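FAQ: What does a multi-protein file look like?

Like this. Sequence, then tokens, then the next protein.
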Amino acid sequence: MPVRPLLLATLVAGLAACSGPRPLEGMDELESARTYADWGKHEEALELAEAAVDSEELSPEAEAEANYLAAEAALSLGRHLKAYRLYRRVLENAPWSPRVADIEDRLYEIGIAFLTLDEYGGWFDSRDRGVEVLESLQAHFRRSDKADDALRLVGDYFGQEDVREWLEAALTHEQLYRDYPDSEWAERSLWLAGHYRLRLVFGPEYNRDEMMRAQELLELSLEVHPHGAKSLEARADLVKVQDLLARGEVQVADFYAARGNVDGERLRLANAALLFPQTQAGQDAAIRLGRMGVSLEEIAATPRLHSTDTFVAPEPLDP
């Protein structure tokens, strides 16, 4: 009588379980896992280290060691997700372990693997996992030399054309500049924080707060790094955002003009002319005010005749 497929699968699984690695003679599971790891037998080391953890007979110190050995074996086998989860156990449950210092480099390696290896190239979840790993590195090792590198990689990932998470990209680069102002990436990230805010803007009539935030960041970039490597890019983006803001003011002025609201029209034209005199829209607004018989100098000297907006960021950046 033929063996049914389900029964056969059960028998095979049972045989596999029985044929798994056993502790070496005179050693417990943890000691055997360490020995197998020294021999380069990572599969055996992984299984025995995990078995040691599952035995529930370990001290906290030994459990941290077993999780670390299992993570090392998983990483050697190319099982990046499993390795990450095991390393995270050590970080979260045994932050005092001497093995923690070694995990920093491992997380960096795993994060880059998820973001760059071809085997993960077609899976959004894997790229997303890479972001999680690198953010974990930055959170657990805030003062490490790799923390700013991790944020840079995350920000660049969000800013890729096939990802286009502009807000996440902006926030990540802003965090890098704020938390690591002496980083080699600080100038670039300050510009990119403003650049990606600008990418969120669909036109002069939309996303005004994003435009104001972009302007603030770009002005700060040029203030801190007036002749920096990214000063030309920052200046070009600042011209774009100021043009958008000026055109937005003129559009609102046109809205008021169409409804016969002269005061509203004049106020918005004054905003464009006073705040953005270097833009074409600002210059056109000044000409319109002149045709209305309004002196720009008089408006500038009379606060009630204009409403120059001041935007306060939730977390202001210092130069």
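And here is the next protein:
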Amino acid sequence: MTKMTISYCDKDFQLSEEFVKITLGLDSFYKKAQNSSENGFLTSEGLVPVQLVEAQSYQYNSFAHILDDYKTLYSKLNKIGNELRREYMAKQVNGMIYYVNYLEGKERSFRNVVRNLLFVDANPVAEWKITRIQQKLEVQLRAAGYSGTVQQMYKRWFEDRKVETADMMSVLTSLIQTAKDDVSRKMFEDIHSIEATPKLVKDVPFSAYADYQAREMLINVDYHYTYEDLKHLVTHEVFPGHFTHMYKREQAVIAGKIPLDASLVITNSASSPIFEGIADCGQIFLGWYENEHDEIAKTAQQLKMCTTLNASYLLNELQREKSEVANYLSTEAFGQENWIKSRIGFIEDFLRGPFIYSYHRGLESLLPIVLSTPLEDKQDFYHLLYENMLTADELKIF
């Protein structure tokens, strides 16, 4: 593998600054008259949940002006020297042009929204794939000594592995520290300077959330988790997931190694699937799939990702009733009632409905590349992956 396949020219840095000014201006304009859900948490996020470094922003009073600025920027991208970077920025800017149309209400096809914002397969996960995941889960649970239907076995396994709410803080604190130590040892030595504190929250449309700027990992305690679930959430949200990824991007931008667009985390962009894919590979990076319970939890997590993607398709593309979507998640993913409520609160949001595709589609794009990267190339791969803005297309060369 080539140690560094993406390089940057002066024009790239200039155009990136222009992209950031326009995007921050769009975010500010959208927040003034947004069309998101009534959930206060998601409403406050807007289009740019995280801005890692301070930057200038344009001020807008119309979507038309924003659209013109993006189109002008798009016309200049051929001046970027590196082909991979040029292709990435073309997708990113073109996606933002489409985003403006979506925010204005001009695009009604949910499939088109997913495809043109995230650049992923907008189809639901095939039912035969869901069935295969359930069958795999059944085999794993029987091998672990359980009997009955797959749903009965999973629920009994879940109760056996469940962490009580009273123990959550101590378990999470321990897992976060262990994960941080492993990242420092196996991936990035400089991560020791980052702290992460768990915080228990209620009535939010997510299981866990990386509040990087507050250095807090939020976790929803309206429902329960197994110990293995918590391992997954820690590696996804904190180390070596989102906290680690944002820290490496932040430091690279500050050092002038990469352009300014890396300082923005945008809800629904060409980079979103890889952003989530990196987080979902966290346990693989650390070697945290250690026993049969980890494997069961991994299969159950895959089932939840695929069925939640399908739930968004049912709700937003096929316009099915929430009760039907809730029943689907109950029967196919064996979800807890409050988990289902939280998931529907997420996918019914104007911005997060499409974004849910980033999880499964991001993991399926990144995972084969991660698994095929030779051991001797791991460190170079980690730096390429964490310190550059990418889509699956740029990574396919590996």
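Q: Is there any per-entry metadata?
A: Some entries carry free-text notes. For the entry above: The longest strand covers residues 197-201.
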